[in-house]
Design a protein that fits this description.
Elements (H helix, E strand, L loop, with lengths): L1 H14 L5 E4 L6 H7 L4 E6 L2 H10 L6 E5 L5 H4 L4 E8 L13 H14 E11 L4 H15 L6 E6 L10 E7 L1
Parallel strand pairs: 1-2, 1-4, 2-3, 4-5
Antiparallel strand pairs: 5-7, 6-7
Length: 178
């Protein structure tokens, strides 16, 4: 799995600079937020679990360029009006927490559509898909079908995955706005 996380950081670094505005659409325990906050101007981070926001605030207590939203990422348009260089999603569930609380395709699709509208040209949405559980398997299938249907004149979409590893390793979608 660390290979996928390393790859996600390489992809992230392609799209950001010190003046970037970025959304971490799934705050989780705050590790992506931490990585982003150390490199850019402003991170907007969302999560529906209070525990996730609390954990992220503890981890990122030394940063003052993070805005936390205790809300679902499908409500991005209620809070964010600025243009973005990057949006990052980690789909699945909060590690070391209630595994019945997961991301789901319908809210993820809404968040992708809203954030894509705010995305600068030639910038990206990075989606790390953890699909090794029942809800994740369904979400991955639906997401693949949805992303495959996006107009090629709107975005270039890549799928980065390990093909020689057992046990459903996570994979990454990279959506680049044209």
């Amino acid at each position: 799995m660390s290979v996928i996380l390393d790859l996600s950081k390489l992809l992230i670094d392609r799209y950001i600079n010190k003046d970037s505005f970025v959304i971490d659409a799934t705050c989780g325990n705050g590790y992506d937020t931490n990585y982003l906050a150390s490199k850019i101007k402003k991170v907007y981070t969302f999560d529906i679990q209070k525990k996730a926001i609390e954990n992220a605030k503890i981890l990122n207590k030394n940063f003052n360029n993070i805005l936390y939203f205790y809300d679902g990422h499908e409500h991005i348009d209620k809070y964010i009006k600025t243009h973005l260089d990057l949006v990052v999603f980690n789909l699945g569930y909060l590690p070391n927490s209630d595994k019945s609380i997961t991301t789901n395709f319908n809210t993820t699709k809404q968040a992708i559509e809203q954030s894509f509208g705010l995305l600068n040209r030639k910038k990206a949405i990075i989606i790390i898909v953890y699909h090794g559980h029942e809800a994740g398997e369904l979400e991955a299938k639906q997401l693949s079908e949805y992303l495959s249907s996006i107009d090629k004149n709107e975005a270039d979409i890549f799928e980065h995955k390990l093909i020689n590893k057992p046990n459903t390793p996570p994979f990454i979608y990279e959506i680049i706005k044209r």
